[in-house]
């Protein structure tokens, strides 16, 4: 019999803590080694219980989930799944910043057992805990130069695109923190419109978009059918819709999931291959699975420029590896090198 996954639950509500213990403990894959009400208690148990994965609440007495994430990643790096209620902008903002600080995923807190959505929410939580427990996370210093306040971007003249017209980006596990670094590196003067597919729980999409707009130099918003992409703006598809480009405009599609994802990065990148050809740039960042690989292969065949994140900086080297396996990647670059390369391409270098 395979060894069970050791789970530490950090949740201040006794009712919710018992509910999570019941959900996770009822799954044969897991062993709930402790369930505590504060981050401070959780930190004390890190080296004693040695959990494989942590279920972490955001609103906690004393240290909140963001500060707890920073402490965990500095002291004993452990995969963290943030379990948050979809209640207000403040909680969503803390959850998004926890992702930026090293947490791997955000899932919605399961509601009571009598709720119709309980089974699916409980199943999703357990699936994420099982998957993320396998991710190898690395130690990170608490002072990482992270600025969680929104800054007004400097006004920078936009450069010409030098023959390129559009950038498509696909990211999943580890994506939020990667996107902050990459979009920040592009700067406010980046010449091309950006279309982005980030795998995220539907109920957190609005919070993610608002957060990303606040911590990068770009205006980030949810795309609408018929939108004409513009430089300085990042368009993200609505939940449960694919986003494609046709005749230079956004098309939202209610078609089946691809690679178990809806929205799918491959749908986006394939459409860029058809609509823009060699005038498009495709980027696949960190993420589990293979979404984006087929779409990037189509872009490669169409003469587009394709970049994937190197294994050395990926939280999960799944999607970039899948794209590389198909021979779809022109350049494999570590995360800090992607933004400078994109800027070079728009400058004709």
UniProtKB/TrEMBL annotation:
Q: Keywords in UniProt for this one?
A: Chemotaxis, Cytoplasm, Hydrolase, Methyltransferase, Phosphoprotein, Transferase
Q: Where are the transmembrane segments?
A: none
**What chemistry does it catalyse, as a reaction equation?**
[protein]-L-glutamate 5-O-methyl ester + H2O = L-glutamyl-[protein] + methanol + H(+); L-glutaminyl-[protein] + H2O = L-glutamyl-[protein] + NH4(+)
Provide the E.C. number(s) assigned to this enzyme: 3.1.1.61, 3.5.1.44
Record InterPro entries = CheB-like (IPR008248), CheB_C (IPR035909), CheY-like_superfamily (IPR011006), Sig_transdc_resp-reg_Me-estase (IPR000673), Sig_transdc_resp-reg_receiver (IPR001789)
Localization per Swiss-Prot or TrEMBL: Cytoplasm
* Entry PTM: Phosphorylated by CheA. Phosphorylation of the N-terminal regulatory domain activates the methylesterase activity.
Q: Which residues form the Response regulatory domain?
A: 6-124
Give the domain of life.
Bacteria
What does the entry note on its domains? Contains a C-terminal catalytic domain, and an N-terminal region which modulates catalytic activity.
* Homology family: Belongs to the CheB family.
Q: Could you identify this protein by its name?
A: Protein-glutamate methylesterase/protein-glutamine glutaminase
Source organism per entry reads Magnetospirillum aberrantis SpK
The gene from which this protein is expressed is cheB
């Amino acid at each position: 019999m395979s060894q069970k996954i050791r789970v530490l639950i950090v949740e201040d509500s006794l009712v919710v803590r018992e509910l999570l213990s019941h959900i996770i403990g009822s799954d044969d894959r897991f062993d709930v080694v402790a369930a505590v009400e504060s981050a401070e208690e959780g930190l004390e148990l890190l080296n004693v219980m040695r959990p494989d994965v942590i279920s972490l609440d955001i609103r906690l007495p004393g240290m909140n989930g963001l500060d707890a994430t920073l402490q965990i990643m500095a002291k004993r790096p452990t995969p963290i799944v943030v379990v948050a209620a979809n209640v207000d902008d403040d909680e969503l903002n803390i959850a998004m910043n926890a992702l930026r600080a090293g947490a791997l995923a955000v899932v919605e807190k399961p509601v009571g057992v009598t709720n119709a959505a309980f089974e699916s929410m409980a199943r999703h939580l357990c699936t994420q805990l099982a998957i993320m427990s396998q991710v190898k996370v690395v130690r990170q210093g608490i002072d990482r130069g992270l600025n969680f306040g929104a800054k007004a971007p400097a006004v920078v003249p936009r450069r010409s695109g030098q023959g390129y017209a559009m950038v498509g980006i696909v990211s999943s596990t580890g994506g939020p923190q990667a996107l902050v670094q990459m979009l920040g590196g592009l700067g406010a003067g980046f010449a091309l419109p950006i279309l982005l597919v980030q795998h995220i729980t539907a109920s957190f999409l609005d919070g993610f978009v608002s957060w990303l707009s606040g911590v990068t130099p770009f205006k980030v918003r949810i795309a609408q059918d018929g939108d004409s992409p513009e430089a300085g703006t990042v368009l993200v598809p609505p939940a449960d819709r694919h986003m494609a480009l046709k005749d230079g405009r956004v098309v939202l599609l209610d078609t089946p999931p691809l690679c178990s994802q809806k929205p799918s990065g491959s749908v986006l990148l394939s459409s860029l291959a058809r609509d823009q050809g060699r005038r498009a740039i495709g980027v696949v960042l960190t993420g589990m699975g293979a979404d984006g690989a087929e779409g990037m292969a189509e872009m490669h065949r169409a003469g587009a420029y394709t970049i994937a994140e190197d294994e050395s900086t990926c939280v999960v080297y799944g999607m970039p590896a899948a794209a590389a396996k198909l021979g779809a990647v022109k350049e494999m670059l570590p995360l800090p090198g992607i933004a400078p390369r994109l800027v070079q391409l728009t400058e004709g270098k």
